[in-house]
Amino acid sequence: MGSVRADGIQTGRLAPTDYEANFSDIHAPLSSHEAFVEAERCYFCHDAPCQTACPTSIDIPLFIREIATGNNLGAAETILSANILGGMCARVCPTETLCEEACVREHAEGKPVKIGLLQRHATDALMESGKQPFTRAASTGKKVAVIGGGPAGLSCAHKLAEHGHAVTIFESKNKLGGLNEYGIAAYKTTHDFAQREVDFILAIGGIEVKTGQALGCNVEIGALRQGFDAVFVGTGLSGVNKLGLEGEGTLSGVVDAVKYIAQLRQAKDLSSLPVGRNVVVIGGGMTAIDAAVQSKKLGAENVTIVYRRGQSDMKASAYEQQVAQTHGVTIRTFAQPAALIGENGKVTGVRFDETDMKNGKLVTTGSAYTLTADMVLTAIGQIFVPDGLGGADALALEAGRIKVDAERRTSAKGIWAGGDCIAGGEDLTVAAVEDGKQAALSIHQALSM
């Protein structure tokens, strides 16, 4: 059973075969026949609403028609030309609130074309073929620094390389991929897909990678601006919100959900990852859902998500909430954490104040309850940390993030930004990819003058 701690946190709660089954692909890929049948359901709409709903404007009717005619590789090229991380987006995008929600069949029948699975079918076929449909243009002699190797940075780097510019990616961690590698539930991206996609992107050539390079630590934006013709900032959100409760930093068992998911994603042996018997997850977004479901899959007996507002206000989609509930996770709403309860330096529970909406404001009702917990995962939002943006070339901020225009240009000449670190960032892989792409096109235009 593994090592047992007095606080109930334990490794090896399950048999080895259970871990493999629990963390297998949550969505089985379509077979060739299933893909053909599903593709035939598409109406191939003119001015297709699904395409309009896609942040990267993938020509969805075209790629589905290509699948229907047996041209999977052509379909993949159509997808990746608009969204170079189309394989990952097919796995993690909330298609139920984007392209599939806009599908004509969804409105007519309540059963949209399975666009996400069709997109995966095509991009997987290309990845498995080993073919590279993109080539780098002749060198322009221009150099661009990309700070951050997540979806925005990778998208920007690939598009710049495609136009012949030399790109250097500066990444703080030891792997590229950002949240695709460190922050997404393991059952959504199996078989090391994030790194295989990174390798595919880098295969275009002209992209140098420097890991262990953190902005504000050993990388300064001013110095990069002097050494490169342009700079793109795609650092994401490196900070997390705190509960602000006594014991948050001292009680054993109170864990940042983002870090916990990153540990899980990098674990070579899932049985070595400790998990509580009674886990409470505080938050209402995708991180909360992913942390809760994975805790259950690691063998936690009771997992409860607690959110301060109503279930319809949760940032996690209704589909993802359903995924949590079908995996045995309890979702409790209208309650906010009031105190962490501990004993002998270990968390034993959380007291919650019940809340309600009065005149559009969240208020406490005066009632409270306590949940037993030997592990508390906090997932109440990530924040932008502006380290390394100071000095003479300081970038203007808006609502605590980097201010950009429609072309993702910042207030400083020669510096662009995109992804979650910019004002209005949507915390979606597909939105970050579009930011990187649009910034690269703007940079290319500026360097071509």
Please describe what this structure looks like.
It is built from 17 helices and 17 strands. It is α/β, with parallel strands linked by helices. It has three domains: 32-129, Alpha-helical ferredoxin (Fumarate Reductase Iron-sulfur Protein, Chain B, domain 2, Orthogonal Bundle), CATH 1.10.1060; 143-238 and 384-447, FAD/NAD(P)-binding domain (3-Layer(bba) Sandwich), CATH 3.50.50; 241-381, FAD/NAD(P)-binding domain (3-Layer(bba) Sandwich). A hairpin with a 2-residue loop joins strand 15 (397-398) and strand 16 (401-402). It starts with 15 loop residues before the first helix and ends with a helix. Mean pLDDT is 94; it is low at 1-6.
